[in-house]
Amino acid sequence: MANDMIDNITKVLVQSAKQVEDQVDAELVKLNEMDEDDFEKMRERRLEALKKAQKQKQEWLSKGHGEYREIPSEKEFFGEVKESKKVVCHFYRSSTFRCKIVDKHLALLAKKHVETKFIKLNVDKAPFLAERLRIKVIPTLALLIDAKSKDYVVGFGDLGNTDEFSTEMLEWRLGCADVINYSGNLMEPPTSTQKPHSRFTKVEKTIRGRGYDTDSDDDDDD
């Protein structure tokens, strides 16, 4: 019985190895059949892709991406959100210690994820937004795509319910909302500190629409 099982496993492994070998051989044949013009076309396509990516990066940087910035009031908020496809806005209060924790992580992520704009806004200077979005927990991150609020990170409930969460944990959480280009595994957080019953507050609405009732059980305010 054991020998039959070993034989079957061996056959599967041999077949898998043969398939991989055939695929490699097929790619080698394609390369061998390519002439100088084909290689030149491939090189041109790669150069074009690099130029396009560089142009896109420069466009993002010109719009304030690549750094974590504070905007002075809610008046500027709408302009910032309108000109960038993906935006993370931290609603903070200077007297709240946990906002400084968030600042530290967002400053790092802004440099890494140039495709997204990272800004912060003092909630006391944004009464209209605070009322419309019903921001009652500080800190709150509004995650926006195409000028619409896609998701919210309210307090630290989604980050393991701890002040010691890692930058990678916040990065994963933003990746779950598709507000950054996340290359890791979205099916599970990078650490095991998150409580199994932690819930995300998912809302889809225009920024100028009415507010929402938070689904967070946190009481993290000042």
Give a summary of the structure in a few sentences.
This protein starts with a helix and ends in a 16-residue tail after the last strand.
Helix content: 40-55%
How is the largest sheet built, in terms of strand order? 1-3-2-4-5-6
Give the overall average pLDDT. Answer: 82
Q: What is the alpha-carbon Rg in Å?
A: 24 Å
Strand % is 15-25%
What is the overall number of helices?
6
Name the overall outline. flat
Walk me through this protein's architecture.
This protein is of the alpha/beta class and 222 residues long. 45% of the residues lie in helices and 16% in strands. It has helices at 2-33, 36-62, 74-83, 97-112, 127-132, 167-176; strands at residues 68-70, 86-92, 117-122, 140-145, 148-154, 201-206. Strands 1-3-2-4-5-6 form a 6-stranded mixed β-sheet. A hairpin with a 2-residue loop joins strand 4 and strand 5 (148-154). It is flat and about 65 Å long.
Key features of this structure:
alpha/beta, 222 residues
Secondary structure blueprint with pairings:
Layout (H helix, E strand, L loop, with lengths): L1 H32 L2 H27 L5 E3 L3 H10 L2 E7 L4 H16 L4 E6 L4 H6 L7 E6 L2 E7 L12 H10 L24 E6 L16
Parallel strand pairs: 1-3, 2-3
Antiparallel strand pairs: 2-4, 4-5, 5-6
